[in-house]
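Exercise 7. Given the encoded structure of a 271-residue chain, write a plausible sequence.
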C-alpha cells in the first residue's frame, strides 16, 4: 500500500542566527517514492530536512503535511505520521536494541496506557525487517556501525509512519554497510509504500536508489526530477564545481558519475 501523504515546502527560508541558509525554497515530495537530496557541503540539505520535521522553525514560509503546517501540528500527531533518523543519533548509555526499538512506539502511547500486543508486534516486525532480532538484548553502544544503524532504522520502523526522513543514513559506514542500509530502505518503500526522503553524499548511490532526485546549491533547488533527467555533467559542474563524465551504470542502468581530477585532465583533453 503506497503512502498518500503529501509533503511540501512552500517558499521556505531557514537560517541560524544572522546566517541565511535556505532562501525562498519550494519543493514537493512525491508520495510513495524514494527521494534523495544531494548537494555540496553547507548547501542547506540537512537544514531543509530539519525544518521538514519541525526541528527548525522557518523564518518564513511553511512545511506542509497533507496541507497542514508541521510546525502547528501536535508533536505526537506528527510523530504518528512522520519519522526521522537524524545524522549520527546518540543512544542512552547501556540501552539495549529492544529497548531502543520500543521507543519508536512512544507516539502511539497515551497517558497511563499500557504496552499492548500491537506494540509487541510492531517491535518484532521492525527487528525482523532489519535483521536485528538476534541483537535485541545487546547494548547499542557495543554494536558495529552497520548494526547500530540498522537498530536505529528498526526504531523508525516501529514508529509505523508513512513518511520517513533520514539525514545521511550511510555516513561513517563502509561500502558494504551503505548498500545494506539502502537495500533495507528500498525494501521498506517497495513492501510498505513508505515515502522516504534522505540526504545522501554519494551521488552514485543516490542515483541508483532514488526514484526522485533533488540537487541543491546555495540554499535553493538547482534541479529536481528522475535521476536520469537530473544527473548530468552540467548538474555536477553547477552543484559541485566538478568536471566529470556521466555514463550508464552497468549494474543498475542508472547514471554513474566519474570525476575528472587535475591528474586526469590531460588524458581527458587528449581523448
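Solution.
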Amino acid at each position: 500500500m503506497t503512502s498518500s501523504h503529501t509533503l511540501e515546502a512552500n517558499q521556505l527560508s531557514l537560517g541560524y542566527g544572522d546566517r541565511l541558509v535556505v532562501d525562498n525554497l519550494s519543493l514537493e515530495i512525491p508520495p510513495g517514492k524514494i527521494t534523495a537530496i544531494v548537494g555540496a557541503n553547507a548547501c542547506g540539505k540537512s537544514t531543509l530536512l530539519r525544518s521538514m520535521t519541525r526541528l527548525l522553525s522557518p523564518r518564513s514560509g511553511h512545511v506542509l503535511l497533507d496541507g497542514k503546517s508541521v510546525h502547528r501540528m501536535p508533536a505526537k500527531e506528527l510523530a504518528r505520521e512522520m519519522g526521522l533518523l537524524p545524522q549520527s543519533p546518540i543512544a542512552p548509555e547501556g540501552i539495549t536494541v529492544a529497548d531502543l526499538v520500543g521507543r519508536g512506539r512512544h507516539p502511539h502511547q497515551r497517558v497511563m496506557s499500557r504496552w499492548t500486543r500491537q506494540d509487541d508486534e510492531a517491535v518484532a516486525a521492525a527487528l525482523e525487517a532489519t535483521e536485528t532480532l538476534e541483537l535485541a538484548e545487546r547494548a547499542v553502544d557495543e554494536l558495529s556501525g552497520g548494526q547500530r544503524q540498522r537498530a536505529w532504522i528498526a526504531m523508525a520502523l516501529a514508529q509505523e509512519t508513512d513518511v520517513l526522513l533520514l539525514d545521511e543514513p550511510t555516513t561513517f559506514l563502509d561500502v558494504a554497510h551503505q548498500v545494506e542500509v539502502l537495500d533495507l530502505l528500498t525494501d521498506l518503500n517497495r513492501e510498505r509504500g513508505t515515502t522516504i526522503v534522505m540526504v545522501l553524499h554519494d551521488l552514485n548511490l543516490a542515483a541508483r536508489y532514488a526514484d526522485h532526485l533533488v540537487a541543491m546549491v546555495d540554499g535553493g533547488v538547482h534541479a529536481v526530477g528522475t535521476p536520469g533527467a537530473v544527473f548530468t555533467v552540467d548538474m555536477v559542474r553547477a552543484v559541485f564545481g566538478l568536471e566529470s563524465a556521466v555514463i550508464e551504470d552497468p549494474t543498475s542502468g542508472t547514471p554513474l558519475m566519474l570525476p575528472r581530477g587535475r591528474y586526469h585532465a590531460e588524458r581527458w583533453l587528449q581523448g
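Remark. The chain has a mean pLDDT of 90. Students should compare their own answers with the one above.
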